[in-house]
Design a protein that fits this description.
The structure holds two protein chains of two kinds. Chain A is mostly beta strands. Chain A has one domain: 2-Layer Sandwich (Folate-binding fold). Chain A contains one helix and six strands. Chain A is elongated, with a radius of gyration of 15 Å. The chains are: A mainly beta, B alpha+beta.
Chain lengths: 94, 192
């Protein structure tokens, strides 16, 4: 059983969660002034790193809140979870 | 006109029988009122409104449930609660809340037809639910006063231990009620 720690509900089974992609992607201000390349970059281009990755997760079957997780894309180890709006912890530390 | 309509439980077609052997008892508590309450728990107007109508403040600790007279308030999220009322009381409670929340950022939605309550009681109640529920149901981890939204046999539910420790209360969706009851009755055969 793989457990993920929801910042609200605590440790829960992974089947209650769904991943919602890379976190901390700020929507550009003044989107009407963006070029097609810049808009496409915001919409579609993701970093896809090997190693620590900041992601949004949704506690879909629980409190239905989004939160952020710091997950290693090689080992799948989630080293930290934190609420939306909170400062991400430094990578690799709990 | 309303006499023409008789309220019918979503489990009207399920046969509830006496439990055999060590199988837990499975029974429905139909026709409760269910109100979905949303608002900011740090707004004074919202806190005061809940306090005025229900006599208590909405719980802000995650995954807890409190009794408020005839009603119970379940924590569903940092800005969301479920109020379970006695049958037929939901419209009065909802109207009182809406009146108390005048001008306050909030929402109260009557979801009474969408949910129903199941009680699973007996020595093997936890074992039966744990057949396909990822939550730790041991009383060390999950005590009366706590509640959790999780999954039972892949369907969403809200579970809380009964105050007397005899078993669990499951709040399930109408659309999954038939499936879940058939699943529970089937899983209970293993304990007969």
């Amino acid at each position: 059983m793989f457990l993920i720690e929801c910042p609200w509900c605590g440790l829960r089974d992974e089947t209650e969660f769904s991943c919602a992609g890379e976190a901390h992607i700020a929507r550009p201000l003044e989107t009407e002034k963006l070029s097609d390349e810049e808009w496409a970059d915001y919409l579609f281009m993701r970093s896809n790193p090997k190693g620590a990755h900041r992601e949004q997760w949704l506690h879909a079957a629980g409190c239905r809140r989004y939160f952020n997780a710091l997950r290693d894309t090689v080992t799948y180890k989630i080293s930290a979870t934190y609420k939306i709006g909170e400062t991400p912890p430094s990578e690799g530390k709990k | 006109m309303s006499d023409l309509f008789q309220q019918e439980s979503p489990l009207v077609q399920i046969e509830f029988s006496e439990p055999k052997g060590a199988a837990p008892r499975i029974e429905e508590k139909p026709f409760n009122g269910y109100l979905n309450l949303r608002g900011r728990s740090d707004h004074t107007g919202f806190i005061a409104g809940v306090l005025k109508v229900l006599g208590v403040e909405a719980p802000t600790e995650a995954n807890t449930v409190i009794d408020a007279g005839d009603n119970r308030i379940y924590w569903f999220g940092p800005d969301e609660w479920l109020i379970v009322t006695k049958p037929g009381q939901q419209t009065r409670v909802r109207n009182d809340l809406l009146a108390a929340f005048a001008g306050v950022f909030s929402s109260v939605v009557d979801n009474s037809s969408g949910l129903t309550t199941i009680h699973v009681t007996g020595d093997n109640a936890a074992a039966l639910i744990a057949t396909d529920c990822p939550l730790d149901l041991h009383p060390r981890e999950f005590k009366p006063g706590q509640c959790a939204q999780t999954r039972l046999a892949k369907a969403g539910m809200t579970i809380s231990p009964l105050a007397d420790g005899s078993g669990f209360e499951l709040i399930i969706r109408r659309s999954f009620a038939d499936y879940l009851l058939l699943w529970l009755q089937d899983a209970a055969i293993a304990f007969e």
